[in-house]
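Protein modeling request. Please complete all fields; requests missing the sequence field cannot be processed.
Requester role: graduate student
Desired output: 3D structure, token encoding
Chains: 1
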Amino acid sequence: MWFKQGRRRKLRAQPFPDQWSRILTARMPAYGRLSRMDRAELEGHVRVFLAEKYFEGCGGMEITDEVRLLIAAQACVLLLHRDTDYFPGMRSVLVYPGPFQGAGKAIGPAGMVTQSVGWRHGESWHTPGSGGPVVLSWPDVLAGAADPEDGRNVVYHEFAHQLDGESGWVDGAPALDDQAAAAEWKRVMSEQFRMHVRAVWAGVPTVIGAYGAQSPAEFFAVATEAFFERGAALRAANPEVYRLLAAYYRQDPAAGCSMSQDVCGAA
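Delivered output (267 residues):
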């Protein structure tokens, strides 16, 4: 552990290549909106992520610096201001040139679960000891990076599943500091999930995407997308969800600042 932490400190201290900054500035508007402090922290996390994770192209997909950077930078947004082990359950990222076929589950109105093979935009695997992987469609990665306000980001979604799995289960409850925090999370998020399911089946518009009604795990992942990309709307519509996510991620996107900053929006 000491050796790993020392190696990571050295990686984070390395200068971030200008070419990498140009790629992120051009492709990921959220990167350019970060304060200098947060941008430096994100760049250090990206350094570690790229050194520790293996990327593989599937279906003819070529893995370039742009591919690796855009995935790593978006994933590492979820790690800002937090003690992190850099998604320890995931060692590899598989990237397709478009949607790919995979197995999916759906929950019907009566609670019946059906499973079928269909086209997927992303997947996150959690078999213990397997090392992942996270599987992503490259056009969806690009789209998520390009529009930081539409509430849809496949990288945030799939890596939120990885954070969820750090508790030992992928059930919508990530690992928390103490039992009181875990109990509050379970109470609040369970109720909010039930309310979300009722709203979706009633056809009521929701800030958290309708796919979050599939399960508590999907609710957490979709709520994470809304938190980072539609923070003000989520805070207004689901203040309890926003409060818990802000405490967990140690960020306050609705206010345009991070919890580690003394002045919101400081450059």
